[in-house]
Amino acid sequence: MRRRDLLTVAGLGAAVWPLAGLAQQPGPMRRIGVLLPAAADDSEWQARIGAFRQGLQQLGWTDGENVRIDARWGTSNATEIHRHAAELGALAPEVILAGGASAVGPLLQATRTVPIVFTIVTDPVGAGFVDTLARPGGNATGFMAFEFSIGGKWLELLKQIAPGVTRVAVLRDAAQGTATSLFAAIQAVAPALRVEVIPVNMRGAGEIEQSVETFALS
Q: What is the pTM of this model?
């Protein structure tokens, strides 16, 4: 299983967790909202939803019997995602699973009371979804794609491979909060490694070659 898929399945399991202790208790049917930034015929997301349903069944929840899953396929269309987010917020389910960052923002606009569990969000703090990683606050929590401190590990590994390196270019799209956070982590370890890190801003993959050539001539 790819790491990205593993994180998604873990997030799906986290969405189930608030209901785990209720599965064997009689009462009204529980509801789970799901908002996915994909088309209904997307095979990858269908597989993930299948894993989600399987996890529910293992915990004693069966869709249509003691729990109802209200899934919305928003595709990649922002207007559709916002519309479905509003629908799910109005339903007030016990928990809403958000598949990725594009679904979280609209859901937080739709409800500040229903718990939201997100998967594969790169920078939930920078995006404003949570207050901090240690204390998310609000009604959203979930899983990051990776830890930003890994940026410092990249520089350490580069220094091990090429001990003589003293200047390093960091290619980034400065418009993305993720790039800023990663650069901060790289910059934090640079003095100890006696390396000067230089941010090289670019707006797309097409500028990589030009950016490298410019840095090499500087």
A: 0.70
